[in-house]
Structure formats: structure tokens, C-alpha cells
DNA sequence: TTTTATAAATTGGTTAACCAAATTATGCGG
DNA sequence: CCGCATAATTTGGTTAACCAATTTATAAAA
């Protein structure tokens, strides 16, 4: 069997349920930041769910910085205040899956920044990596093949050169979904490859010459088509 | 025991090691997008690690959209091309923990966008939520107490009103670490509370009147101190 | 009473056995 | 050789028992 579409694990409901119960527990027991949560066994028993589910949920809350597990010691509430805990947990519970428009909007925002930062901070190694990604994209695009991957890798190389690890992580996070959506909505089907090469090259040159203003403008031009497409697709 | 500092799980090394081996396996066996990975048992056996570790690693790669687990069927490589897989996996392996400067830089970037979007898209409910957060912050700050949590919740309320779920998620992701760093570096210790109330109120008013340009400017003013502080702390 | 050494209990992490669903292999009938 | 029902196998997920480190309780010694 080959995987065609994308399936989503439906354990989100269980996790959210457990998150709610943990929140109730914290409020009911008046647990303060830094306090220890009941053990995983007690929680799974009290909530009537498997300990695996409890562990997964705790790991999720760890990702958002709400909890912190210490081996052989316990799970602790982060030192960020009860008010913030409640507010953030509510936000986490209400989080919805990102739509295409929100993804593209965010990508454009991030990349107009990374290209500026890369122009200012890029090392020689960074420049070499970007050039390699550019060449790979060019040869693939000229051959007439689909070059979405090489396209995105060029942009990721710029993100890496920005020297901002947070933005770099975020770019990595949204890239796969963007690739999938691109192919789903056939964003890059046209013969925009040749245009793309020119635009990519201009961006690269601006970064090379450490001209952040020009680099941002070239990136903006590069995104102009995508921008329109994004708001067109929205209604789909 | 109360948790004071922050400890980091050192299972990152094991995970990265497994990620590398999975990457090698994909390349060695010439697995294509959509193909099925060997079962968790075979991987844990071949890599000589526990199946739990394999599962955790697979979940991490699932988060980045590289893999996809289907119950009772197998783990599949996402449909995003072998080139992109290799490039992204390399990036994931090289990812470093976010530093304070990178966090603040990203936060400012995101919030200058959310405040603009919130001005354009906020519903009446959104406005009410922001107002509530503002009032909570005001009363806490006026009492002379530490109001970092209420401060951040105000900003999160704006992020929610932006209508961009991706940025909203990102804001939630970086907020806890920002709170911790703020208290660590004593960013908000001064009597900036009164100034903060004024600035927050101005931002709120601009959003209420749906004036994105003004809102962005007010947010920029609000961040001017933080901006300087960020680049000062960098050298610490 | 305080201190310290020792044992019991608790903890998150790990391992292995088990489960139900999905896949694959098998073999019968045509 | 093909079609199809059935059995055997494989799969990710779940459960429970186990482990080593930590914490707490206990009591002996000062």
C-alpha cells in the first residue's frame, strides 16, 4: 500500500480531554507554579485513561512549556504563574489546524524577515549552501520536472542563514504542509519555473551583496503570485 | 521538592541518532515518498534501541511532516519528495535550541503582524477578550504586583484575534520561554507597569477602531524598550 | 532534639507481552 | 489461470510488569 492522502490521528480529542482534566485538577487543588503534579499512574487511574495517553498529553504540554517531567521525581508545573497557565491551556484547547491561507500568510511574513536577516548575517558557508540549493533548483526546473522540493529547500537554506533558530524551526514546521498544499492545489504547475529561476537568482544575488532592502523587495516580488493565489484559494 | 531552574531531557541525542539512521535507511533502500518504512519492531531491533525510542522519534518526524503513522498498517514516508526529505532531515538534525535574542526577535516580528491582522479581522468577541485581558493586566499592575503573565495574556488575546491559526500556535509556543527569560533577566522589574498600561490601552484602542497602521505603530513603540534590551542581553 | 544512616515507597522511563485492525498468504472452486 | 473466502501474519497501539534513580519514612546514635 502506498499512502496517498493524509490521515489525521484522532487522539486529539482524548488529549484535549486530559488537558482539561489536568487544568481542573490544578485549579481545584490550588497547585502553584513549581508544584508537583500527581504521578502518571494516579492521573491515568483518576481520569480512567491509559498511562500512555497521560504521558503523551504531558509531553504535549511540555512542548508548550506548561509542564516539565523529571525522571524518577515527578511532573512539575512550569514557573509561569497560575493565570498564564489557565490562559494558555485554554488557548491550546481551542487551537485549530492551520488552513492554507494562514500557512501562506505566515510563510510570507517569516521569509520577508529571513531574507533580510540572511543578507545581514550570512556567512560564507551559508552563501555556499544557498548557491547549491539554487543550482539544484535551476537544473531541475530547466529539465521540465517538478521542482517544488528544490524550491522549498532554497528557501529553507535562506532561513538557516538568517541566524534565527526560532524562525528556522517555524519554517521547518510549515514547509511540509505547504508542499502538500502546493501539489494539492497545483500552485506550481505552470511554466513558472523559468521565472522562478530568475527570481531566485535575484534573491541570491541580493543576499550575496548583503543588500537587505533589495533582498526583501525581490522576495516580495517572488511572492506576489503566491499572495494572490493564497487569497484566491481561500474561498475553495 | 519545587522546580527552580529548567532541566532538559537528554534523549535528544538518541533521537537524533535514530533520525540519522532512518535517513540512511531511506537512502540505502531507495525508499520513495509514499513507501512504507520497516515496522517499529524491526527498526528498534536493527538500530539496537528500544521500541519506545523509535516511536518517539517517529512522532517527532511526524510533527515535521516527514512521516505518517497509520494504525495496524505501517509508517509511511510523506509525499514530499526524497530531496526535500533529506534536506529537511538534515535541518532538523542541526536545529539548535532557541536563544533569547532569537525568541524576542521572532516575537516582535509576529506581533507586529498579529496586531495589524487583529485590527482588520477582530470580531466583537475578540475585542471583548482583549479588553478583559487589558483590565486584568491593569488592575494587577496598579497593585504593584508582578504582572508578566497578564501582560503576555493580553498579547496572546491579540494573537487569537488575528485569525491566523499558524501564528497563534507559534505565539503559544514561544510565550512560556519568554516568560521564563523575562523573569530570569528581570526585564519587567522596573516601574514600567504604568507606562505599560498606557501602551496597552493605546494598542487596544487602535484595534477597536480598526486602524491597523496605528495599531502597528503603537505596538512598535511598546516594543522599543524590549528591542534594545534584547540586543543588550545578547552578549550575556 | 538533632543528625545521620538505612530501608521502604514513589517516580518517570523501559521492556515485553498482548490486542484489534489491516494486510498478506493460502487454498478451494470454477 | 482467475476469483474469492478464509486463515495466518504483520502492524501500530495498549497494557502491565519491571527498573533504576529519587524521595520519603524510620530509627538508631549523638
UniProtKB/TrEMBL annotation, chains A, B:
PROSITE patterns per record: HTH_GNTR
Transcription as UniProt keyword: yes
Domain HTH gntR-type span(s) in chain numbering: 12-80
InterPro entries xrefs: GntR_C, TF_FadR/GntR_C, Tscrpt_reg_HTH_GntR, WH-like_DNA-bd_sf, WH_DNA-bd_sf
Domain of life of the organism encoding this protein: Bacteria
Record's keyword terms, sorted: DNA-binding, Transcription, Transcription regulation
Name this polypeptide is given: FadR/GntR family transcriptional regulator
Amino acid at each position: 500500500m502506498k499512502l496517498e492522502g493524509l490521515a489525521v490521528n484522532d487522539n486529539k480529542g482524548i488529549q484535549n480531554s486530559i488537558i482539561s482534566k489536568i487544568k481542573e485538577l490544578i485549579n481545584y487543588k490550588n497547585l502553584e507554579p513549581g508544584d508537583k503534579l500527581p504521578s502518571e499512574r494516579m492521573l491515568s487511574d483518576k481520569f480512567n485513561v491509559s498511562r500512555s495517553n497521560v504521558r503523551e498529553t504531558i509531553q504535549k504540554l511540555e512542548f508548550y512549556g506548561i509542564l516539565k517531567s523529571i525522571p524518577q521525581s515527578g511532573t512539575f508545573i512550569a514557573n509561569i504563574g497560575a493565570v498564564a497557565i489557565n490562559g494558555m491551556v485554554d488557548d491550546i484547547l481551542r487551537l485549530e489546524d492551520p488552513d492554507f491561507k494562514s500557512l501562506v500568510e505566515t510563510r510570507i511574513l517569516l521569509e520577508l524577515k529571513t531574507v533580510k536577516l540572511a543578507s545581514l548575517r550570512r556567512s560564507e558557508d551559508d552563501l555556499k549552501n544557498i548557491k547549491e540549493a539554487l543550482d539544484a533548483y535551476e537544473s531541475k526546473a530547466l529539465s521540465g520536472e517538478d521542482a517544488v522540493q528544490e524550491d522549498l529547500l532554497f528557501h529553507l537554506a535562506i532561513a538557516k542563514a538568517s541566524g534565527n533558530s526560532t524562525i528556522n524551526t517555524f519554517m521547518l514546521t510549515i514547509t511540509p504542509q505547504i508542499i502538500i498544499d502546493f501539489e494539492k492545489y497545483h500552485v506550481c504547475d505552470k511554466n513558472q519555473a523559468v521565472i522562478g529561476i530568475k527570481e531566485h537568482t535575484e534573491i541570491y544575488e541580493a543576499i550575496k551583496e548583503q543588500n537587505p532592502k533589495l533582498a526583501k523587495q525581490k522576495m516580495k516580488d517572488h511572492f506576489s503570485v503566491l499572495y494572490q493565489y493564497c487569497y484566491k484559494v481561500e474561498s475553495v
